[in-house]
Amino acid sequence: MEVKPKLFASDVEEPGGGKLAETPRDRRITKLPTPETGRVKSGWTIEDSEELYRIKGWGDPYFSINAAGHVTVSPQGDRGGSLDLYELVRALKQRNLGLPLLIRFSDILEDRIQRLNAAFAKAIARYNYQGVYRGVFPVKCNQQRHLIEDLVRFGKPYQFGLEAGSKPELMIALALLDTPGSLLICNGYKDQEYIETAILAKQLGKTVIVVLEQVEEVDLVIAESRKLGIMPIVGVRAKLSAKGIGRWGGSAGDRAKFGLTVPEIIQAVEKLRAADMLSCLQLLHYHIGSQIPAINVIKDAIREASQIFVELAQLGANMRYLDVGGGLGVDYDGSKTNFYASKNYNMQNYAYDVVAEVKEACEERDVPMPTLISESGRAIASHQSVLVFDVLGTSDVIAEEPEPTTDDDHLILRNLYETWQSISADTYQEAYHDATQFKDEAISLFGFGYLSLVERSRAERLYWACCAKILEIARQQDYVPDDLEDLEKIMASIYYVNLSVFQSAPDSWAIDQLFPIMPIHRLDEEPTCRGTLADLTCDSDGKIDQFIDLRDVKSVLELHPLVRGQGSDTNSEPQTTEPYYLGLFLGGAYQEIMGNLHNLFGDTNTVHIQLTPKGYQIEHVVKGDTMTEVLGYVQYDSEDLIESIRRQSEAALQERRITLQEAQLLLQNYERSLSRYTYLTS
Ligand SMILES: *Cc1c(COP(=O)(O)O)cnc(C)c1O
């Protein structure tokens, strides 16, 4: 098992009981990415790419690299069958499905469900647990209809159910979940209408469980059930004192937004008893947060919850279900550590711990073992989709060997040149400070009019040349002084990508979540450039400049230089480059619905791919938003907009400011655009 070599004191217990993953800020990069600069292209292998992008760490068993240097997808995991992602994208482009493109692999979803159920089945057998596992999928993780339909279908053999956290999600779950014996867990804030609907749905033969999340809901449930004359199945959500950690740790603890404290649970028990409804109380639920990176935190929570569970049984409630919520993590950086982007346990460890802890608590107090429920969303939905997007161009720092200076040149230029000449393994740190100081001086000299624009340009180029030379040396060193950390960033290229971070990877922007990102082809070629990604939005936050790394977080990603396109060397044609495709992986949970319309970039095209014995088939195509659609969200009517352009053209024609031909072309373009994709098309 791989372990992050030095970044955690993973054996140090926090006073609160949980281990705390350090934030990236605490763990700044102390080693720059290892040098590949010296390698020749022919020496680069796909194994080098595997290691560099850590695809085995986060992608196994679904993603790997083939001999052609393309990413391949094995949607059925270990059960064989795979397809070439790059070829798939090319085939989809030929069918007019432009990038950015979200590709969903239904088989992966099925495999995840099977894995989770197999893990619990194995744990139940191993511990001879006297109960079953009935998982539910939290709809909030990904509400797209095709995905929920697949989920219900694939979950049938396991009586997999759904969890709703709001009224609209309840509408989805009630209509789509038709698996006999599966559970429908009702969480979230509830009003009278929500509760009434949930209780009535019991009459359809569904196992609907109303989880009390707020004290007020107890009276509402009692009143509604009296009114309808139906005895519901009721659960309580406990606020555990065991705390989650990491990004989503705030979901637990006494001050958490949801759940009942222990005194409130006791109050609810008494109210239900007084209403003669204590037998309705059958479930205990908790949720300590998503993406729990450390197994001991999970254990602490399950231990505390098991105790509450057996106590409730002894108070006379008819306890039959224990719902451990979400939190089952995804290893985004593939490091298998308790870093926030990783997890130091696997699905099987998780199932073992849940089963073992509940069994022990029940046996000790002679309470029947409950049906176990987990609300694992991220662990089920993350892997099934890949976002593929193209690079539009790059902005590179020019770092070529500088022209020697002469005595006629300005002193500051001569100083910079001398600095460049002097750089060696012994002096590189000092040289970096000198170069930076001279460059700053050059800029202020320019500000006072002592340096011409051409001279300033030379000064900046000399500075970049110094940085490039220093960086080359720094990359050879095991440890680089802190003050050189920014060097990689200064010298990084900017890759302009055809996507909106706000729409397609909102958590990367909002909470610095890391997703594995890598080229999906050219992986037999050394990626000699280092870059950050800049998206299409006119927002400086619309970028990705944190990438997964074994040791820590990288500020630049290794990428390939763009290759000039063929046959475009006529002078009038803009220079084209060959397509360069990147993939963002493990983004199947939460990103789609949280994505927003910043700058009016809409939903991307989505396709559902299923493996067949002969290859694959496209199950569904969900076209991305058109401009008319996104404009509609902000209350613009396309017809009105066209009408306005028509009127303005007419006026311009009258005043002979535009020709008839120009006016027609403009109107044509305008109308056509409205029915088009909001992203750049190539
Ligand atoms: C969000 C949420 C989940 C899903 O958590 P994951 O970590 O994605 O598995 C489960 N239960 C509740 C109550 C939630 O709010």
From TrEMBL:
Listed SUPFAM superfamilies: PLP-binding barrel
UniProt key word Magnesium: yes
Positions bearing N6-(pyridoxal phosphate)lysine: K140
Presence of the UniProt keyword Translocase in the record: no
Domain named Arginine decarboxylase C-terminal helical: residues: 627-680
InterPro entries, alphabetized: Ala_racemase/Decarboxylase_C, Arg_decarb_HB, Arg_decarbox_C, Arg_decrbxlase, De-COase2_CS, De-COase2_N, De-COase2_pyr-phos_BS, Orn/DAP/Arg_de-COase
Molecular function in Gene Ontology: arginine decarboxylase activity; metal ion binding
Chain segments carrying region Disordered: 1-36
Positions annotated to bind substrate: L322, D323, V324, G325, G326, G327, L328, G329, V330, D331, Y332
Domain Orn/DAP/Arg decarboxylase 2 N-terminal: 121-381
Residues of the Arginine decarboxylase helical bundle domain: 407-488
Top-level EC class: lyase
Pathway the protein contributes to: Amine and polyamine biosynthesis; agmatine biosynthesis; agmatine from L-arginine: step 1/1
Signal peptide start-end: none
Residue positions of the active site: C538 (proton donor)
EC numbers on record: 4.1.1.19
Gene3D superfamilies, alphabetized: 1.10.287.3440, 1.20.58.930, Alanine racemase, Lyase, Ornithine Decarboxylase, Chain A, domain 1
Reaction it catalyzes: L-arginine + H(+) = agmatine + CO2
Role of this protein: Catalyzes the biosynthesis of agmatine from arginine.
Annotated protein name in UniProt: Biosynthetic arginine decarboxylase
